[in-house]
Amino acid sequence: MAKYSIIWIEGLSVASGEKVKSLTKDGFSYTTKMTEALRIKKKDIPFICDYMKLHGISESVIENPTTFIGVNYAPKGTMANLLQF
């Protein structure tokens, strides 16, 4: 079972598509690099879903089973700091 999730928003594949890089005061910044993608803990997915709704991400994207992709590693600097929100 995966320990973390990345948030894949769009693109042709998880490997090359847009992934959330960071949460910002205006919404999100994005990256196409898997090594830069933000990691969130599974328990934080409901918070992230609410944050996505607040910043105009479509319900169909949020509820898509491929939006939150499980991963077992978190490179240094990629873990979400949700305490700032």
Characterise this structure.
Strand 2 and strand 3 (27-31) form a beta hairpin. Strands 1, 2, 3, 4 and 5 form a 5-stranded antiparallel β-sheet that branches. This protein has one domain (4-73). The N and C termini lie far apart (27 Å). By secondary structure, the chain is of the alpha+beta class. Helices cover 16% and strands 29% of the residues. It has 2 helices and 5 strands, in the order E-E-E-E-H-H-E. The protein has helices at 45-54, 59-62; strands spanning 4-10, 18-24, 27-31, 40-41, 68-71. The mean pLDDT is 90.
Kindly summarize this structure in a few lines.
The protein has one domain. Helices cover 16% and strands 29% of the residues.
Features:
85 residues; alpha+beta; 5-stranded antiparallel sheet; globular
Question: How many helical elements?
Answer: 2
Q: What percentage of amino acids are in beta strands?
A: 25-35%
Round the Cα radius of gyration to an integer and report it.
12 Å
Query: Could you tell me the mean pLDDT?
Result: 90
- Which word captures the global form? globular
Tell me the span between the first and last alpha carbons.
27 Å
Largest sheet: 5 strands, antiparallel
In percent, how helical is the residue content? Answer: 10-25%
**Helix/strand/pairing class, anyone?**
alpha+beta
Number of strands: 5
Q: Give the tally of structural domains.
A: 1
Flag low-confidence runs.
Answer: none
